[in-house]
Amino acid sequence: MSTSADYYEILGVARDANGDEVKRAYRRLAIKWHPDQNPGNDEAEVRFKECAEAYEVLSDPEKRSVYDRHGHAGLRGRAGHDFNSMHVEDIFSMFNDIFGGQGGGGGRRQRGPARGYDLETEVEITLVEVLEGCEREIPFKRLEVCSPCKGSGAKPGSKPTECTTCGGQGQVAQNGLGGLFRMVTTCPTCQGRRQIIKDKCSECSGAGRTSVQRKLSVKIPRGISDGQVVRVAGEGEPPPPQMSPDGTGVRGDLHIVVRVAEDERFERQQSDLITALEVSFADAALGGTVTVETLEGRSETEIDPGTQHGELFRLDGKGVPDLRTGQRGDLVVVVHVVVPRKLTAKQKELIAALRDTERPAPPAAKDSRKDGSKGAKQDDSAKKRVGFWGKMKDSLGN
Prior knowledge:
four-stranded mixed beta sheet; single chain
């Protein structure tokens, strides 16, 4: 899944909408945002693909239940179609049961060999695995050609018959606006398959495709970032039955979105890592050897005397590799000077002695007057009252 918007909001339906309401909303919006109706409008194509993604989830009872409980996070790790990589006509062919006879790209001819749909799933790795790279088993589901009927959808021993509605063309032409134009659309009877299945295969119920659980070992390159994609060519689905019943053609691809789990020790910025180092007041003041957590384990380094709270220093080459160059970044260490909350009697004594050495010396005591007369004290008080403004008056000559 690619969009982060709410699927119900995308389709404009209530959270308790039934399947028919979801289908009608998707059909209306898909035709509205189809690129054929909005030539040159890139936003329309994005909206169209968002609607397709929302419909795929909300039309599936199991996926919808998971989404209602856990949102987009609940769908992570579940294989789903990668609508961003799919062609618009391919999306219509996926859901042509609700577009039959109504246009929307059904008249487009396949150019070149038929191509299957891309799939998307997710895998989570740790920051330590980013350092060295890793190999993971990726489970996912995909549609495969039904073995008993070989993709025809017909019961073994029987054959499909030609569709009488479209004459085996898979498309029908309709006149619009009083005959002013003709619109070629997917046949509503055979859904573009050109044939009608009377005796359906019991394995696939006439679909010609069955869902298969698959597991694939995939190498995750070192230095990969959260959200980046590993593409495995040819591990998607075969062409749909209306394009190639027996699956002949080009398979789609599997897109694996890599999620890097958060590591509470580090914050990642491209190929650099940032970590906090708690240092005691004594170590910050005197300097010395400290221990820093790295991806490879603990590493000892020296800090300078007088290190201040919030100061930074780097450990070269202790970050993560760059995906392209393979060169490792640095580990940026932020110093946090820790003030102790509880002190022993001895510690209090030592810190008090330090505080006394840091305090300025008290001012020298003034000589007291020997005569102590009351008049002299009044004169002193008068001088104190003169202050700044009295001096200003004297200088200006009153």
